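Posting for a labmate who doesn't have an account.
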Amino acid sequence: MCTLEVSVHLWSWMMPAIALAAGCSAETDASKTETESDTDTDTDTDTDTDTDTDTDTDTDTDTDPDAVPFSVVWPILTNDANHCDGCHSSSSEAGGLVLSTESSAYSKLLPMVTIGDAEESFLIDKIVGDYGERMPPSWAGYEPMSDDDLQVIKDWINTGAIE
């Protein structure tokens, strides 16, 4: 059994509960002030239960299971109906936007979205024509993106714009 000595400060009201959870007793020393330095040499044995130390860039287990990944959006951008890569490829960098590979497309399009809010995203404004000409452009002979394809892109943005 251990004893925790608590200085009177903002957190002292929590110490009995913390001590109980740690299996210790808490003793409050009301005579101590916050300006006194603690020369305690106890070693803290951390019993932290937070185990989320995921620092990789692949699929995060905390992600919404209904989230739409970019791998679902990518075929929409390169299919025969939309032809985004016709103007936005490495050989034709219209507007400085190159969508030649899935990873480069993701990194170029991500700054154009307001994660969690497709209606406030520049990408959606460009596709529907709320900002400049709609994409793909009619002058190039393309039909507007289908409502279904547009909804998939909106769902990707609204569910976190994950890679």
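Reply:
Got it, the structure tokens are right above this. The radius of gyration is 27 Å.
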